[in-house]
From TrEMBL:
SUPFAM superfamilies: NAD(P)-binding Rossmann-fold domains (SSF51735). Pfam families: adh_short (PF00106). This is Oxidoreductase. One of its GO terms (molecular function) is oxidoreductase activity. Belongs to the short-chain dehydrogenases/reductases (SDR) family.
Length: 264
């Protein structure tokens, strides 16, 4: 338990994009560890999950400042504190579908460092790049602006941003992946700035997880552990980084990818 937390209280966590997949798995893991939850997603799924887990939730988008502020306000009104934040936003599939005609299939060959690929990288419109930056990096900046004053008042906190493996080894299957490097840079700067106040920020970089779409059985051959990652495994990594057990880890990018990538 966090040493800054009153002994009679359970820690409070915000999780975004929590209706399904990675976000829902993290919410369930945190609830099992005694966290009180505030959830948000664009669908009503976060409301249903929050009710199931005994928390609170709103329907909203991480790209909307008003929605983020409303989530933080609801959390403070309900619990009076914010100990942990998980910034989850998905893998920008909506952006790809709106701006790129065909989303290529993920296969073992496409996970190699030099795939024989003719995808038109230069055909991605500016709108997709801007939307990607908004979704995978600026959402974390917005949340940090909203929660940091509360964490400063209470004497600390922990933030985990869900990034992706495509940032450390860019692949054409994830053409907007390099945008996540901006998130990593922000996380390091934030960790440097806020560490003296007891606030930590780290990024978790999932590999090919069990909820991956557009996959091929051959892709597991490229993964040293020869399998996709479990959502529960990823959720446990996030829970560790939010806990006092990782109290000396800040500003780091943690790959959870079965050994597929070569690190930072």
């Amino acid at each position: 338990m966090d040493p800054l937390l009153p002994a009679t209280e359970s820690p409070v966590a915000i999780v975004t994009a929590a209706s399904r997949g990675i976000g829902a798995a993290i919410a369930r893991e945190l609830a099992a560890r005694g966290y009180r939850l505030a959830l948000m997603s664009r669908s009503e799924g976060s409301l249903h999950l929050a009710e199931e887990l005994g928390g609170v939730g709103i329907q909203g988008s991480v790209t909307d400042v008003a929605d983020i502020n409303a989530l933080v306000a609801l959390t403070m009104e309900t619990y009076g504190r914010i100990d942990a934040v998980v910034n989850n936003s998905g893998r920008y599939s909506d952006i790809l579908q709106h701006h790129i005609e065909k989303l290529p299939r993920l296969t073992g060959a496409r996970l190699t460092l030099e795939p024989n690929d003719a995808d038109d990288l230069l055909g991605i419109p500016d709108a997709a790049w801007h939307a990607g930056l908004d979704l995978v990096m600026l959402n974390c900046v917005r949340m940090a602006r909203a929660v940091t004053p509360h964490m400063l008042t209470q004497g600390g906190g922990a933030i985990v941003n869900i990034s992706g493996m495509e940032s450390v080894q860019p692949r054409l299957i994830y053409p907007l992946g390099p945008l996540r490097l901006a998130l990593h840079g922000f996380a390091k700067l934030y960790a440097d700035r806020s560490g003296r106040a007891g606030i930590r920020m780290n990024c978790v970089l999932p590999g090919v997880m069990e909820n991956a779409s557009s996959t091929d059985p051959s892709m597991t051959d490229a993964i040293p552990l020869r399998r996709q990652g479990g959502l529960d495994e990823l959720a446990k990594t996030v829970a560790f980084l939010l806990s006092a057990d990782s109290g000396y880890i800040s500003g780091q990018m943690i790959l959870v990818d079965g050994g597929l990538n070569r690190g930072l």
